[in-house]
Amino acid sequence: MITLLVLFSLLSSYAFYHTSQKAQLSNSNSVSVWLQKHTTLAKAIGIACLIIAAILAIASMGLTSGTLLGLMLFSIILSLVIVLTPLKIIGFKQLLGLFLFIIILEILL
């Protein structure tokens, strides 16, 4: 459950990052290019993922602790996206592969 919360927070922050007009964005992969071309839809996807993450946090932790956990995770992940995306340290495909591996471990254990 926490892994899905982190995944949806990451997807929303990644979508919000690529719809920014102030950041100098690179066209490194097809997901980035698509998000930059379709900003309205990307913002809607970002908001939807953020709402899903908030619902997951509140459902799994309760109202107060879920809200605090959601806000802290979103701010941490957003700052990591802002810092690490221009450096191209971690790609989008590697992140999705890592999350699939972690979800499988979370389900099996």
* Helix share bin: over 70%
Low-confidence stretches: none
Number of helices: 5
The whole-angstrom Rg is 14 Å
Strand percentage? under 5%
Major beta sheet summary: none
Mean pLDDT comes to 88
What is the topological layout?
Elements: H1 2-18, H2 30-37, H3 39-61, H4 63-87, H5 92-108
Helix pairs in contact: 1-3, 1-4, 3-4
Q: What can you see in these coordinates?
A:
- The structure is a single chain.
- This protein is mostly helical and 109 residues long.
- It has one domain (2-108).
- 83% of the residues lie in helices and 0% in strands.
- The chain is built from five helices and no strands.
- Helix 1 runs antiparallel to helix 3 (39-61) and helix 3 crosses helix 4 (63-87).
- The model has no long low-confidence stretch (mean pLDDT 88).
